[in-house]
Amino acid sequence: MVREIKFTQLEQLLLSIGFVAMMTSGKQKVYQYQSSGTLVVLPGYEQQAYVRTVHLVAVRRILLENGLMDSDKFNRFLDKVAS
To answer: What is the pLDDT of residues 7-20, one digit of tens each?
Structure first.
C-alpha cells in the first residue's frame, strides 16, 4: 500500500509526540526523543517533498519498537494525511 506523505506531515507527527529536531553538520534530518534517546534519522528532505516508503516503514518500526506509538495510531495518521 503506497502512501503519499509529505515530509512536513511526518515531521509534524514526530514533533507532536515529543521528538526534538537536532542540529547536524550534514544534510540529514535527525530527531531525538529526549527521555529514551531514541533517534530517527532521515535524508535531507525538502519540506514539501514526498517521503519514500522505505523511510515511512523505518519511522513506523522505530516508533513501535520503542513504545512511542502503536500500529493502529500510526495507520490512522497515514490514512488521515494520505486522504
So the answer is: 999 999 999 999 99
CATH number for 56 = 3.30.160
10 with 77: CB under 8 angstroms? no
Give the number of domains in the chain: 1
Structural domain containing residue 69: 7-82
Query: What are the distances in angstroms from CA 21 to CA 24, 44, 54, 75?
Result: 9, 12, 21, 23
Average pLDDT over every residue of 60-67: 96
Q: Both ends of the chain: CA-CA distance in Å?
A: 13
Residue range 24-37, pLDDT digits in tens: 998 999 999 999 99
Rounded CA-CA distance 71/74 in Å is 5
Query: Which three cell numbers, joined as nine digits, stand for 7?
Result: 515530509
